[in-house]
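#struct-pred

JT: dropping the chains for the assembly here, can someone run the whole complex?
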Amino acid sequence: MSYISNIEDIKKCPTEFALALRDTLNVLSGKWKLNVIGVLFFGKKRFTEIEKGLEEITPRMLSKELKELELNGVVNRIVTASRPVVIEYELTESGYELKKVLDEMIGWGILHREKIFKK
Amino acid sequence: MSYISNIEDIKKCPTEFALALRDTLNVLSGKWKLNVIGVLFFGKKRFTEIEKGLEEITPRMLSKELKELELNGVVNRIVTASRPVVIEYELTESGYELKKVLDEMIGWGILHREKIFKK
DNA sequence: AATAGCACTATACTTTTGTATAGTGGAAAA
DNA sequence: TTTTCCACTATACAAAAGTATAGTGCTATT
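RK: done, full complex below.
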């Protein structure tokens, strides 16, 4: 199935597609979101684990990104009521489904690089 | 073909994939790039035509975006040496190939919206 | 009792991104 | 010849995104 199979399709339903596209881009845009999502592809992680996985990120940024990703329905925050409380972050179903999008992006990126070097 | 078929694949070649992913994201990020590319999907256009197609963009921004897209190999700037000179912008092959990426993004966006509304 | 780890928050700052407004230089149309 | 169109550029500014550094409240360990 393809959403933009020809130019007529773009003309027919531009707003819904444009909104969906913008949503997806917003979920991925910024310096850290892709990295945070990347780390969480390996499974659920605690705050400091993600922090260590990304080395240069500040806790302020990580906190901000996780909140946004949660708000966008890409990440779940799981609180385990033990002593002390354990907080973990994991990708939602939607989060895991981003794999297809990222895959297509990687594909384009690799092909595009090849083309540029050939010239 | 899939780049991230399992977690092992991510572990094997993270840097090349990460770079390709970042390249693709950079080509699409920002307020106007997606719109400019969208307009050019309909065929080659002159500066003022794109400007009119996007209504709210300022010439400064359009000029900047077109330069970046050209630099990134997504758009060609074609100069026709008539009197007066006619300048047109068109998508490169790579530019048109973004369709697959955008399509996947639209797909995710639509599915994700549905999921959020169901809850 | 002092120290360390967890999961953050607060404040101030710098950098990047985008906006507003005006202007340029050439050609062509009125 | 004045005005208009085209394809931009220049300058100044505002807003958003990201960084640096320190600190909080809790629990657990030594």
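JT: nice. Chain B has one domain: 31-118. Strands of chain B lie at 45-46, 75-80, 86-91.
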